[in-house]
Amino acid sequence: MKQYLLIIFLCLLGGLDVAEAQETAILERLRTKMEQINAFSATVRLETDIDFIRMPVKTARMSYEREQPVKLTSEDFVLVPKRGLDLVMWEIFKYDYIAVPRGEAEKNNTLCTVLHVIPDDKKAQYAIATLFIDRQTDRLVEAEIQTRKQGAYTLTMDYAKPEDLLPEKVEVSFEVEKVKIPIRYLAREGEVNREAYKSDGVKTGKVVLYFDDYEIALKG
Between the CA of residue 156 and those of 6, 8, 120, 163, 197, what are the distances in Å? Predict the structure, then answer.
């Protein structure tokens, strides 16, 4: 009887190993997709959603080159967390990491595999990332990222077509205090409720980016 129980236990362990391997494989497929992109540029429309700030809609140009931070250029002042521009997850995949499967969850009516990604190098800018990856397309649907020095932020991505590599819309939610908002400058750009800004408690904000006119250069 004990031998039968041992066999069943070993079979269960083997089943768990296979399931975990299947879940972490989706992360490698996402990484492969992102590593296809040598460079990209796009026109971006930005809408700011922060309780104590009213900002007009802004436009900018975003560009990326492999292994370089994403750049955002505009004739106007644009407010967006620097880390929130990492559409290809370059910071996540830059260093070796440990992937921990966390099961499944539904995001935006999409069934996703959920993984915790923990960097295996102290040089990494983030401490842990929770990624929600579409099980059908191997694309990133949402990323909750805890940085070492710039607080936490969340990226939520929508795509125009099933085959698109990059999103047409991204919502970046973040901790306002960690972004170091230049209130004096913003007062000239829009309306600022200074009392709400100085009030106690954690303040959060959101920037919505709409992308158009993508130009994507793929690897060889």
Answer: 45, 41, 25, 18, 25
In angstroms, the CA 151 to CA 10 distance is 42
Domain spans of the chain, in order of start: 2-218
Look at residue 187 in the predicted model and tell me its pLDDT.
44
Query: CB of 115 within 8 A of CB of 28?
Result: no
Tell which residue, 58, 46, 60, 49, has the closest CA to residue 170: 46
pTM: 0.82
Segments of the chain scoring below 50 in pLDDT: 2, 5-6, 8-10, 12-16, 183-185, 187
User: CA nearest 131: which of 145, 151, 146, 149?
Assistant: 145
Burial of 176 (0-12, 13-18, 19+ CB in 10 A): buried
Yes or no: domain 2-218 corresponds to CATH 1.10.287? no
